[in-house]
């Protein structure tokens, strides 16, 4: 029953999304997400570094962490991601739904950063100063999936060459979509230490957004005499933008065994997002390149020009509370709690009343946590972690929450450190590519599994 209620809610909530491509409210949520990329040490502990510091990637969470470094350092990271997306679709009663699986493999320079540490030249309670520079892929959009089945629905029931013949019987639907692009982040952080106990920091974050979606929806229809009409609707979306946010935080070292921290990151303000599409999300009719077979008739609906749209986006702010337990030189356990209010997503510089009402009414304040541990055996270290991230939809299923674990190891050669990690996370979702036609059409159910191998080299200066 919970599953049926959740899907019914989603269909209602997304009824204003246009055709099979992602609508503005979907993009607003997508552009607010974070993959948690960073160094191999960072990812092997599931990013639980808010009160820990001492890693270049920690400045993304709490900029105070860079002054934990005793020496200047540089870290570079490569990762390889394997994503499986299984889609179940067809049959209104969820019986005999067809399942297809797409396997996606990607390789990236996911992170590079440096921290420069300076000792104070004057006698002062502020005895150390650090500045950090960090680049990372915040969100990697590259993915694809396919769905096929029969929902007994026909969107295209006439041929432009023969509008009097009605093709209202269907043999099924096929859907393919491909995502490309990424959001990259450049961090500049400043931090200092007061009396070797209080670490404070400030960070400035600059974002570069590039996103592409290309989708094809195919209907296999026929009339009462068995004549066939196959229709393909192609849509594409090219989106670019730049954004800015700031974060600040502190870490307090209670003693050698325990420290805690708190950090706040402002919303990310995308002051101009440019979208180039072959459809119009504000229209109630089908826009895109439509091909009718077997006659090979092509239609671009009544809009022959591409839609060039400019708008603004504000993503949620983030609050991170952290604690770390240090067991001398043997090991540590670190815990981060993260709070994001997705209700504060806002689109502007256009007519986005429906979308903003959706964010405010149907999204929620999410709770997430990361747990990481590291244990040292002389120069060798072993690590592990677990992460949990709530889905932002008010009526999301438990399986829609992201859950994952991570493992890793590292070796310290002295001035050079090599680290390797493996992380695995999964969640479920739904995708409705008939949203503006009929709210009784069931969506495709998606099972998304991500496995990532990350390798880093760190040079201590």
The tally of strands reads 20
Which class best fits the helix and strand makeup?
A: mainly beta
- Trace the largest sheet across and list its strands: 1-2-3-5-6-7-8-13-14-16-17-18-19-20
Share of residues in helices: under 10%
Low-confidence stretches are 1-18
Number of helices: 4
- The value of Rg in angstroms is 25 Å
Primary descriptors:
461 residues; mainly beta; 14-stranded antiparallel β-barrel; 4 helices; 57% strand; elongated; disordered N terminus
How would you describe what is shown here?
The chain has about 450 residues and is mainly beta. Helix content is about 5%, strand content about 55%. Strand 16 (about 365-375) and strand 17 form a beta hairpin. The longest helix is centred in the N-terminal third of the chain and has 12 residues, at about 1-15.
């Amino acid at each position: 029953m919970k599953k049926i209620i959740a899907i019914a809610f989603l269909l209602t909530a997304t009824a204003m999304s246009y055709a099979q491509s992602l609508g503005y409210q979907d993009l607003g949520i997508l552009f607010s997400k974070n993959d948690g990329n960073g160094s191999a040490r960072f990812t092997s502990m599931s990013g639980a570094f808010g009160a820990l510091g001492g890693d270049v990637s920690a400045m993304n969470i709490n900029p105070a962490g860079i002054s934990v470094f005793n020496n200047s350092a540089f870290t570079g990271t490569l990762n390889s991601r394997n994503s499986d997306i299984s889609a179940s679709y067809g049959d209104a009663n969820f019986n005999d739904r067809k399942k297809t699986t797409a396997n996606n493999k990607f390789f990236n320079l996911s992170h590079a950063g440096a921290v420069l540490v300076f000792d104070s030249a004057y006698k002062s309670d502020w005895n150390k100063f650090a500045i950090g520079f960090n680049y990372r892929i915040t969100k990697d959009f590259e993915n694809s999936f396919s769905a096929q089945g029969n929902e007994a629905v026909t969107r295209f029931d006439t041929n432009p060459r023969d509008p009097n013949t009605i093709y209202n019987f269907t043999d099924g639907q096929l859907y393919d979509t491909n995502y490309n692009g990424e959001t990259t982040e450049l961090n500049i952080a400043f931090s200092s230490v007061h009396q070797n106990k209080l670490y404070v920091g400030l960070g400035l974050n600059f974002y570069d957004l590039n996103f592409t979606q290309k989708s094809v929806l195919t209907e296999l229809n026929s009339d009462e005499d068995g004549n066939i009409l196959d229709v393909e609707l192609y849509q594409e979306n090219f989106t670019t933008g730049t954004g800015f946010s700031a974060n600040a935080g502190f870490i307090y070292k209670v003693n050698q065994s325990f420290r805690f921290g708190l950090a706040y990151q402002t919303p990310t303000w995308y002051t101009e997002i440019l979208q180039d599409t072959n459809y119009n999300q504000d229209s109630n009719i089908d826009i895109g390149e439509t091909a009718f077979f077997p006659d090979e008739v092509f239609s671009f609906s009544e809009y022959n020009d591409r839609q060039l749209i400019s708008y603004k986006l504000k993503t949620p702010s983030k609050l991170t509370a952290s604690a770390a337990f240090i067991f001398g030189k043997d090991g540590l356990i670190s815990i981060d709690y993260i709070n994001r209010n997705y209700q504060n997503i806002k689109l502007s510089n256009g007519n986005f009343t429906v979308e903003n009402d959706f964010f405010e009414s149907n999204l929620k304040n999410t709770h997430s946590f990361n747990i990481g541990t590291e244990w040292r055996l002389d120069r060798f270290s072993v690590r592990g972690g677990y992460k949990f991230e709530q889905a932002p939809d008010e009526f999301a299923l438990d399986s829609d929450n992201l859950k994952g674990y991570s493992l890793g190891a590292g070796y310290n050669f002295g001035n050079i450190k090599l680290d390797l990690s493996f992380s695995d996370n999964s969640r479920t979702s739904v995708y409705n590519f008939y949203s503006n036609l009929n709210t009784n059409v069931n969506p495709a159910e998606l099972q998304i599994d991500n496995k990532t191998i990350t390798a880093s080299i760190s040079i201590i200066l």
